[in-house]
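Shipment paperwork, digital attachment
Item: protein structure file
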Amino acid sequence: MKWIALLFAALAALFVFWFFFRSRPVRWIVYYGEAVSARTFMDIDLAILEPDAISPNSFKDLKTLFFGYLSVGEANTSRDYWPEIMGENFIVEENPDWPGAWRVDIRSPKWRQLLLEKVIPEILAKGYQGLFLDTVDTAAYLEEKYPKKFAGSREAMVAFVQSIRARFPDALILPNNALELLDDYGEVIYGVTVEDLYTHCRFLNRTCTQTPMEETKQREEILDRFQGRFKKPVFNILYHYGDEKNLVDYAIRRSRQKGYHWYLTTPDLNALGTMGK
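Attachment content:
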């Protein structure tokens, strides 16, 4: 009769996943501004915030899961750690799309040590239950652009995410993009967020267009496989500038069809957007 019990447990797990992550929209936000109060989070299930601006310790008796922003593939000159790493050999190049953001080599022990021993503990000490890992895809970018110089960067990024799980077993891990790594660390993460799946915005001229369908379908296949294999949620960030109604309607409709939890906002993420319903 043991196999019957195992089958029942598996079916129960599938039901929980379907009920909470497919039939029930998750109310979530991504917000890097400062103008919030406890009331902002009263009906929010999950909030991705800028830890230098907001400390969840300021809020009491909330059921919201708070994820603190952490850039793992880039270092920013605005961060307090910058003076101690400026000029280090793991600082690779400036990101031309984001002035002040410098791509880093995740293979560097010194960079990983800084994140594990200083940056992450400081975020968690502010009351965050989880870490939102941004710029994870820098590893693949560098390995593709400079294959000899940065060989093994993808593998090093996977190992680093796994080391976060080992060092901070209670912290939830939510990587952004880098879909090519999902099969490798899917077991240790909470879910995944994705950008530019249906909409692609250009910051300089403030316009948004539809992501090419071939690219969309390729990424959907990876996300669907991730959901099916690991039974974990996909959070889809939809960007717009306010004048793309048809594009937004298309993106929301497709997100609903795929069972992705969508959030509509502007690219600067400095204002509260619209949550999926």
